[in-house]
Amino acid sequence: MNSCHQNMRFTSELENDDVLAFLDIKVIWSNGCFLTSVYRKPTFIGVYTNYNSFLPEIYKTGLVQTLLFRLFTICSNWSLVHKEIEFLKAVMRKNSYPDRLLDSVIHRFLSGIFVVKVTETTDERETFQLHLPYLGKLTTRTEHAVRKLFQQYIPNCKVRITTKATVRLSSLFSFKDKVPRYLSSGVIYKFTCGTCNGTYIGKSKRHQKTRFCEHLGISALTEKPSKSARPSAISDHRKFCESVNSLSSFTVIGGDSNNWHLSLKESLFIQKYNPPLNANIQSVPLKLF
């Protein structure tokens, strides 16, 4: 038996001034023990969601809380935690975050670390879910008004309010190129003869233009007569009717990504329109009709 041998290579990194980076952790060798702090790449420029961005306040406070939780989890002592918090405040100030918000979020975070969590009883009140479009201060005032009305008139119920941006970048710009219509597949099409108005309904799992060109006896690339044309009901009719048709003679009337569903829909369309060129052929027997 032939055995395959593959050389394995390992990479290593040496510490620099008793500091070694591992993922997003900075490992420090100090006084015979290891300390850990937050590591940031040299390319880090401190850009986060700007405070003046048109976003709900909870998104911005949530960002600060996430960064606080990250540094608190990584740092191995309070001296490093304090150093990282001061660095975080300086970075967030550059992103237009006010000190009042930073101090409030930091105070709540640090206070929550030492507060003993008491097991709360399950709130059995009925909950109403309300979605509001984010419209800046108007949404904030509306949210406060709704909560006040619930407390005043339906105190035995609670309301959960979520906000959603009305305009997103994806709604203004297309990030993906649209697939040309002639490259769509899984379609049901209808052919109409330009001479006698005879119709045919068929389906294709391939690109629609490929199938249409086969019916017309032309190449899908050059749209010139093809030497390897395949016979079909449409091509036979064109010879009999001596009609000249083009790609505009075809119309897509349906589609599906599932082949069985595609065949079923084709049979339903044939049953509905009764096209003369199909000769009552059905892809799937329709036992209910």
Corresponding CATH architecture of the largest domain: 3-Layer(aba) Sandwich
Distance between the termini: 64 Å
Sheet/helix structural class: alpha+beta
Order of SSEs, N→C? EEEHHHEHEHEEHHEH
Low-confidence stretches: none
> What is the strand tally?
8
Give the biggest sheet: 3 strands, antiparallel
CATH class of the largest domain: Alpha Beta
The fraction of residues assigned to DSSP E strands is 15-25%
Radius of gyration over alpha carbons? 34 Å
CATH domain fold name of the largest domain: GIY-YIG endonuclease
List its traits.
alpha+beta; 289 residues; three-stranded antiparallel beta sheet; 8 helices
Structure description:
36% of the residues lie in helices and 18% in strands. The model has no long low-confidence stretch (mean pLDDT 84). A hairpin with a 6-residue loop joins β6 and β7. The radius of gyration is 34 Å and the shape is elongated. It has eight helices and eight strands; from the N terminus they run βββαααβαβαββααβα. The protein folds into three domains: 19-114, no CATH class; 126-167; 181-278, GIY-YIG endonuclease. By secondary structure, the chain is α+β, with helices and mostly antiparallel strands.
